[in-house]
Amino acid sequence: MTPPSEPPFDAPATAAERFPLQFARTRRFSLGVPRQFTVSPDGERVLFVRTTSGTDPVSRLWLYDNGAERLLADPLGPGFADDAPGETPPEETARRERARVTTSGVVSYATDDPALLVAFALQGVLWVVRTDGGAPRRVATAGPVVDPRPSPDGSLIAYVSQGALRTVRVDGTGDRPLAEPEDENVTYGLSDYVSQESIGRSRGYWWSPRGDALLVARVDTTEVHKRYIADPSDPGRPPRVVSYPAAGTANAKVSLHLIRVGGERIGVHLPEEAGEEHPEGVWTDRAFEYVVAAGWDGHGPLVSVQTRDQRSVHVLEVDETSGATRTSHRAHDRAWVSLRPGTPLRLGSGALVVAARPGGDTQGLDIGGAVTPPGLEVREVIGAADGRVFFTAGEEPTEIHVWSSAPGGGPDAAPVRVSGTPGVHTAAVGGPTVVLDSRTPDGHTVTVHRAGMPEGRIAVLAEEPLVTPRPLALRLGKRELRSRLYLPSWHRPGDAPLPVLLSPYAGHGMQVVLEVRTWWTAVAQWFAEQGFAVLVTDGRGTPGRGEEWEKSVYGDRLTAVLEDQTDALHAAAARHPDLDLTRVAMRGWSFSGYLAAAAVLRHPEVFHAAVAGAAPADRRLYDTHWEERFLGHPDVQPENYTRNSLLDEAAGLTRPLMLVHGLADDNVAVAHTLRLSAALLAAGRPHTVLPLSGAGHLVGQERTASSLLLLERDFLRKSLEL
After folding, report:
1. CA dihedral of residues 549, 554, 559, 563 (deg, nearest 10)
2. pLDDT band for position 9 (50/70/90)?
3. More exposed terminus of the chain, fewer Cβ within 10 Å: N or C?
4. Mean pLDDT, to the nearest integer, of 248-260?
């Protein structure tokens, strides 16, 4: 397919014409956005990373102190630029892919306990800088560095190099291994693929508060199936090997070990399987295969484990002298136990903050014995500071606010909302300081509050989209589906009918119908300016509307989701007669790409064209933790996988379909699209395939990302005869 013409960025053009290139150059408007906030325990210092503008792709380390920002480390500045460049270790590249990091430079960091010493890696080289003065300094190490973390007192720095966990003194002396891999399939101190991609645990080791020992994950991928990710445009380059546990296959074996800085080592005695309280199902697997959370506080190590079938989660207290464990909390569910980010959290008193069901199907918290009220849907625990626990939650699914509560009951235990303006808010806390990170319909702000009062702001340097979103907020159908309708700015009621483009995500774990102005709202408005009425709907299976709503996709990931998209379409057209139901398309990426392909295959009477990007068309190819959560084990419940696969439905295609996929995608392998295309070819069904050379699951190449929007637009226009 020939790339569409696009005006140069500095050429005279309308805002809508220039938007695709701006979208790509700003990495979805993520450049210039401060992130990874760390507040010192006394609340005096705030660390963060940010690029210097909305088009600068190099992250720097910054300090907010005494009401002002100060640059701590500039990878392009003096000292760094003179240093011989290294090469980013493959383990670090994989970590960035899992975290969807789109920048270079200082992309992550860690501090000692008072946040005075900061450690970070640049292209495998270890650097440190102090927040109380002094220039960044390189620390010599025995090998390339991944995930460096200072000890609580700042005297040592632990890091991973070539699968070994090592420590080095902050002056660069005394580098020594604490745990070395027994063979090429073993690593110490790193997280396995599933934990990073689907569970949300990115770390693989944790310091003791005294700095005399570490809790360390050992990962053995010997039995995990290997995938080979090659670049067809460079046939001389060897493929990248990824240990990928597809549904129904072996997971990595993860064990935990207590390792003293002197080298002594004790294994943690994790339970092998859940007991009789474990809920039974068509497929039941009681084995604790997943380490879903871990840490070490003043009361000792604390670990959470989950069964292979995900119906039980146990919180374990670990005896640091023997490695013995005691279960302090159990959670069970007949579908799956939802993993609440930030839990378990243990307070200074020893009380736990864990997930709870306060009433109805609300997903709440138990904060040291005080349960959040029904109707307040909790999303994440931020942390504890100044005698209160901070978390994000919402009473209306399109808004997420920061709340705080005192543990242990009493009048102070009632949750208090910290954020005010409608939007999506999160925070970082330390001492009396709260850094409130707020995305609203008016934009993005970061405000520093001290003792409940705003003290200052940390600058957000992201570019403003050249296209301003103008969504109409809707609640549609009998389920009051939260939706947003984007119409062209030039359209007036009674004008010619508009073809309809559905652009949802609609999958588990993500919402796009929120009170925010962000990249996907700008993209929706851009498509509207191209002549479409764009409808975005969060239906069943998405977060924010209770446990029953979220788990309604158990066993079937498509039927209810497609029904909600269809219901929203018809309800929106009933309110807005200018929507032309004879010309309807859907576009999407990842789950929504899968949904778009399913829409034209299953309901050609409703959907007349689709663009399906990185669509996981064969659910057997996706990873264990994510896919078995919904569909069970493919050997025990093959009917679930057959019902949710698109391959057997290929012969039913009668509408235009464009399949797009990055050839370097190690999350949704390109095999999904190739198998679907092969099935379509075998059935004699014409379709379009657009391979993206060198692109992963997140398309980062500037010209590719920019042209892709235009190619989608042109395909949809032609397909709907616009």
Report:
1. 0
2. very low
3. N
4. 98
Tell me which DSSP letter residue 645 carries. -
Calculate ∠ Cα 195-201-207, nearest 5°. 125
Q: Which domains does the chain have, with CATH numbers?
A: 464-719 (3.40.50.1820)
CA angle 433, 439, 443 (to 5 degrees): 120
537-558 confidence digits (pLDDT tens): 999 999 999 999 999 999 999 9
Full DSSP string of 168-183: EETTS---EEEE--SS
Token match 């990842």: residue? 590
Beta-bridged to residue 291, according to DSSP, are 305
Q: Which of 594, 465, 581, 602 is nearest to 524 (CA)?
A: 465
For residue 467 the two structure tokens come to: 């296209």
User: How far is residue 295's CA from residue 397's CA, in Å, rounded to a whole number?
Assistant: 31
pLDDT for position 82: 66
The whole model's pTM is what?
Answer: 0.95
Residue whose entry in the numeric block shows the structure tokens 């010493």: 117
For the stretch 607-656, pLDDT in tens is 999 999 999 999 999 999 999 999 999 999 999 999 999 999 999 999 99
Confidence of residue 2 (pLDDT cuts 50, 70, 90): very low
Q: Label residue 11 by pLDDT band (50, 70, 90).
A: very low
| Residues 6+ away with beta carbon under 8 Å from 134 | none
Which of 107, 109, 85 shows the shortest CA–CA distance to 98? 107
CA distance linking residue 219 with residue 191, whole number of Å = 7
| CA-closest candidate to residue 140, choices 101, 83, 95, 97 | 83
11 CB-contact burial (10 Å; exposed 0-12 / middle 13-18 / buried 19+):
exposed
User: In sequence order, which residues have a C-beta less than 8 Å from that of residue 342 and are 6 or more positions away?
Assistant: 353, 380, 381, 382, 383, 391
Cis peptide bond upstream of 271, omega within 30: no
Q: 53-66: per-residue pLDDT in tens?
A: 999 999 999 999 99
- Residues belonging to the chain: 722
Residue 172 has a CB neighbour count (10 Å cut-off) of 15
By the 10 Å C-beta count (0-12 exposed, 13-18 middle, 19+ buried), 688 is classed as middle
Strand partners, 401: 393
**Sheet with strand 453-458: strands edge to edge:** 424-430, 433-440, 443-450, 453-458
Helix, strand, coil % in the chain, rounded to nearest 5:
20, 35, 45
Q: Tell me what pLDDT residue 84 has.
A: 59
DSSP secondary structure of 219-250: EE-TTSPEEEE--TT-TTSPPEEEE--BTTSP
Instruction: Detail the DSSP E strand segments found in 225-311.
Output: 226-229, 240-243, 253-260, 265-267, 288-297, 300-307
What are the backbone dihedrals phi and psi of residue 608, each rounded to the nearest 5 degrees, phi first? -110, -5
Q: Quick one: which of 27, 62, 105, 22 has its CA closest to 446?
A: 62
Look at residue 721 and give its three-state secondary structure.
coil
If one counts every other C-beta atom within 10 angstroms of the C-beta of residue 492, the result is 8
Banded model confidence at residue 1, pLDDT cuts 50, 70, 90:
very low
pLDDT of 241 above 70: yes
Task: Locate the DSSP E strands across 510-621.
Answer: 533-538, 579-589, 609-613
pLDDT at 5 over 70: no
